[in-house]
Amino acid sequence: MNRVILATVVMGLLGFFFAIVLSYFSKKFEIKKDDGLADVVAALPGVNCGACGCASCEDFAGKFLKGEVPVDGCKAGGKKVAEKLTELKAKFSGDVRLVEVLSALPGVNCGACGSPSCEAFAKAFLKGEQPVDGCKVGREKTAAKLVELKKKFEI
Fold this sequence. Notes:
The chain is mainly alpha-helical. It has two domains: 35-93, Electron transport complex subunit B, putative Fe-S cluster (3-methyladenine DNA Glycosylase II, Chain A, domain 3, Orthogonal Bundle), CATH 1.10.15.40; 95-155, Electron transport complex subunit B, putative Fe-S cluster (3-methyladenine DNA Glycosylase II, Chain A, domain 3). Helix content is 61%, strand content 0%. It contains seven helices and no strands. The protein is elongated. The N and C termini lie far apart (88 Å).
């Protein structure tokens, strides 16, 4: 009878010991989720169409946070999603100037300006590498907005 009680107590103590050890290591090696990822996924349409070249919307969101895809890379969401992603990019990067220049552009990624995307054009414009009339779509209206931004940001 004593052996049964002793075995029960020993097994209980071992279980308690391993529960404490597992609890400690689960906290120590916890993988923290990126809050930004959830925000970007929420802004996307969630159709997982693959038109952007990514396997899923979550894959797109991860690449977006790394800067591997442009703000207007989501084809299913169109301009509405691009605007949300532009706001999120400014929130994460803190570059309000980029957001303002992007909002002045048409967001069609035609490439007529020589840049692969409107985002690339905006970055080049902020560096002084693109002229105010560089955007060929909506030329006069876009150029007028860019002239204002150039004065505002002293580019």
